[in-house]
Amino acid sequence: MRIVADENIPLVNAFFGHMGEVVCLPGRTMTAADVRDADALIVRSVTKVNPALLEGSKVKFVGTCTIGVDHLDQAYLDAHGVKWSSAPGCNANSVVEFVYAALCHLDINWLPVKFGIIGCGNVGGLLYKRLKAQGVDVLCYDPNLTLAQNPDLTSLEEVLACDVISMHTPLVTTGAHPSFHLLGRKELLQLKLGAVLINCGRGPVIDNQALLDVLTERNDLRVVLDVWEPEPDISLELLNHVLLGSPHIAGYSYDGKLNGTELIYQALCRHLDKSPQSSLTALVPPLANNQLRIDKNIDKHNNIFNIAKELIKQVYDIAADDARLRALATQAFAGEVVFGEGFDSLRKHYPVRREFHNYQVHLESITDTDKKWLQVLGFHCV
What are the D-isomer specific 2-hydroxyacid dehydrogenase catalytic domain coordinates in residue numbering (predicted)? Predict the structure, then answer.
């Protein structure tokens, strides 16, 4: 059996190696010649899986180690008897932690604000549950859900009136509820004075040119973009107008990527009617050096939000992601690098980021209420 896989998928050989030959290639530049003799194709979101890639190939299984599937031509796969599978929810926790890290970096306490979520699937739904558990006033827009599934559903206009808006919708271009350019100039101008807008779902759900125009006119808006339109050749001018920018890595925690690998491995095993022989439990040891402490003065004299800021920064320095992207833009402007290639390189060589649940927190004085609050974030308090 021949398996062609994106080279950025972690532990791909450890999981799939016993099934046959594993060939690892750059995901964005895979060609029809690369996959012609493959039996299975394992990708991430940068690979467009369509007739141009698969026509004439032996591929009978396609797995994407991501929650999104807009890069898969599902109709073509179904029509040609190619079994396909995604990894829904694999990196939801990673993206939610990105949102918390962004808010902490911008010094935005989410507890007293009205928080809006656009798209309440695996990622937005998890963010919603955590915010509600922390006592936050949350409103949600998702036309694919009912009030029975989410009692805080409301209109898009109501969500756009919130203090913080976090977008987690997939890219949908057809059907009753398309998300392409869901936020255009009209919607962006509805944002309240000083609003925070975060997008770590799909770039084209916001009209990026309209966003640039609005940010040029309004300097009160605080925008965080992890996803762009288009990628990897994003607007460097737009990057200059956002407070935090990153190269589509919100879901790139090591744990999230590993979850995706395991889910697709299990899907291929089912496709082949084989019992799994590998697991994350067997392949990934517990994290070493996972003890977190903060300054005693912060512990004793600050509120829980300030404690969370200190802890999250120790685990995930989101400012470093922003700095790397802006440094790349500077190099590209000077003609030293090709920006699109550098964008992909930042993703390929992204530093290992572990999720909060891997860490134990030591605090000298903490109430049971605050301990539960930190545990909602994922930390283990000892």
Answer: 21-274
